[in-house]
């Protein structure tokens, strides 16, 4: 099942409708999202009982940034591979890595 993350535009609409007193079901219908998505977003993006789209968007970016894997390719690994290539594996050298 595919899904997409809420955009800043959707979060802004959610903020406005929530301040107007709309229920999560009504907001969900308006945005074309499930009501539980709206409820979770309000819970996740609320500061002192008030939902704020901008702070919710920043929190989203922070959560996404903390989930990015560090990666496995390091300078040490590149040097080791280059050394192996130099020894017996091949005459080719890794581009961009100092010999």
Q: Which spans have pLDDT < 50 for at least 5 consecutive residues?
A: none
Strand order of the largest sheet: 1-2
Mean pLDDT across the residues is 85
Number of helices: 5
Which class do the helix and strand fractions yield? Answer: mainly alpha
The termini sit apart by 48 Å
Strand content: under 5%
Largest sheet: 2 strands, antiparallel
Order of helices and strands: HHHEEHH
Helix content: 55-70%
Shape: elongated
Number of domains: 1
Number of strands: 2
Compute the CA-based radius of gyration.
24 Å
Model description:
The structure is a single chain. This protein has a two-stranded antiparallel ribbon. The longest helix has 15 residues, at 75-89. It has one domain (1-93). It is mainly alpha-helical and 99 residues long. It is built from five helices and two strands, in the order H-H-H-E-E-H-H.
Which key features would you list for this structure?
single chain; about 100 residues; mainly alpha; two-stranded antiparallel sheet; 5 helices; 2 strands; about 60% helix
Summarize the structure.
By secondary structure, the protein is mostly helical. The protein has one domain (1-93).
Write the layout of secondary structure elements.
Elements: H1 8-19, H2 24-31, H3 35-45, E1 46-47, E2 50-51, H4 53-66, H5 75-89
Antiparallel strand pairs: 1-2
Helix pairs in contact: 1-4, 2-3
């Amino acid at each position: 099942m595919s899904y997409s993350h809420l955009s800043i535009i959707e979060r802004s609409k959610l903020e406005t409708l929530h301040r107007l007193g709309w229920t999560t079901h009504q907001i969900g219908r308006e945005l074309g999202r499930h009501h539980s998505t709206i409820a979770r977003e309000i819970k996740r993006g609320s500061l002192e009982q008030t939902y704020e789209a901008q702070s919710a968007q920043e929190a989203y970016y922070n959560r996404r940034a903390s989930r990015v894997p560090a990666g496995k390719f390091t300078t040490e690994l590149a040097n080791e591979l280059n050394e192996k290539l130099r020894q017996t594996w091949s005459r080719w050298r890794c581009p961009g890595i100092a010999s």
